[in-house]
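Fold it.
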Amino acid sequence: MVSVVIPVYNAGPAIRRAIDSVLAQSFTDYEIIVVDDGSTDNTEELVKKYGSKVKYIYQENSGRSSARNTGIQAAKGKWVAFLDADDQWLPDKLKIQMELLDRNSELMWCAGNFIQTDGSRSTPRINPTVINNALTGRDYFLNYFEEAAKGLCFIATPTVIVKKSIFEKIGLFDISLLFGEDMDTWWRIAHKHPQVGYIAEPIARVYLNIQDQALQKQRLARKSCQNIIKLAKKHFELSEKYGDTEVYRALVKRIACHRLCTAIYNGYKKEP
């Protein structure tokens, strides 16, 4: 069974779209867990209208990472899939991924391409042909960091399925991170399990909120310096532990898109 974890905070206008996209899946062996992170709108009312189809959990506002962790801990399935409250899955998303995982029993996680939209324009995050060429006939990338450094293995949270037992080994989402908590989690998985199943065709629809993006940029500019340094340092140390420093460094170099990341890439040194 797949446990679908949906964290939500004041997402009344969108949460039904997310839940309905799960209920419309051609794969039916799943449970839906909605973790309400202290919403003050009508989210609870909307979710509870689904009755027994959805498990509703309320918690005091603690952040998205905490809500996801609550969902993981409540999950009864062998696999955990993530969906954000303002996004949606395409109808065969779970079916395609679970068939891939059944064909490749050694894989511990799987992700895929997605459609990004601002409401008026929609486009795949990566050209599916480019991804298929990079996969060279396989269902998976041999090394997440290596392919991500080439821009070929973008991991979006609403496309991810992870074997639940993995969280017992790598830990849950880091609630201390201001941003990038999902990236931190995928990187921790990739250090230990670099092979990742990947679907070239879009399997989800991610909605871009231009206003939220602008606010996020302002927030990062004000508050993220120590957070970015903490995240990068943490994974440089993990990369040394697992022997994948060079491919991880290549990824950091690729995402060094502003002065903080550039400083981290150029200035990181191992502590004695």
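DSSP finds twelve helices and twelve strands in the chain.
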